[in-house]
Write a structure and sequence with these properties.
single chain, about 325 residues, alpha/beta, 7-stranded parallel β-sheet, globular
Amino acid sequence: MNMKQWLEDVKSSSVKKPMPILSFPSTQLMGITVKELVMDSALQAKGMKMVADRVDSSAAVSMMDLSVEAEAFGAEARISDDEVPTIVGHICQTQEEADALAVPAVGAGRTGLYVDAIRQACELITDRPVFAGVIGPFSLAGRLIGVSDAMIFCYDDPDMVHTILKKCTAFLIDYIKAYKAVGASGVIMAEPLAGLLPPAMNAEFSLPYVKEIRDAVEDDTFVFGYHNCGDAVPRQLDDLAELHLSIYHIGNATPMKLALEKLPADSIVMGNVDPAAQFCNGTTDSIRAATRAVMDDCVSFANFVPSSGCDIPPASSWDNIDAFFDEAAKYYAK
């Protein structure tokens, strides 16, 4: 697929099909647990297909499982029946440990399973692009260092952090290229830990590595998208704009209209109905109201696409998900 043309078609369309980060609630459609989903490539592909058949989205997006890449490096992942997997502890907090850290081959841990899931999904879903999901470089480094300690080490031992970031970046480039090789049309990179950094630190410890990854993987057939839902994103928007990314996916901590005002007008900017408060814990009435509110603020921007503010949790109500899509369609029909 010519993804540059897809981007232009999305921007020029008077009706924007939503593109939420929607995959984990497929467990409800299949009657399985989260643990079963994250351990089985066929179930992941089947779930993506079932979601695509149910909702009129502009693209199919795989899971935002931010444990997979760190697990491949040797970190411990906690996987449960009902919750999105998480990383516990740390494996690297000294320069010596950083120097010794090995960059895993794609296929280590569950990364091969996730690549194969996208391969199967691309065979099943042929009416829209299929996007893989990966973690961002600083968010990955933070899971290796320890999320609560990562910012401290940026001050106390920045050389160690950069050593790890370089290795994370090398792996992520290879990992994304593997997704590209099996047919993915693009990737959404989630960098939420960097969204907690002051702008100057984000500009040092995240954005150069994000740019390196984007430059290594994006072309006419493959689009690079960037997601951040951190509280500091409103103060980072000027620096993010300088990257001139194809897709920005903005979390609900940032006013969506502010993001559209700050980010490039020729980039697609997606967001940002609250995934926890609305998709998971809201009602059909409240999510319709939240969807209308975002669209009232944003539909005047030609590059706006309705979306969730982050990955939609596994237990989210399908009534709420359906209401979001229905309300967006009704809004454009007006």
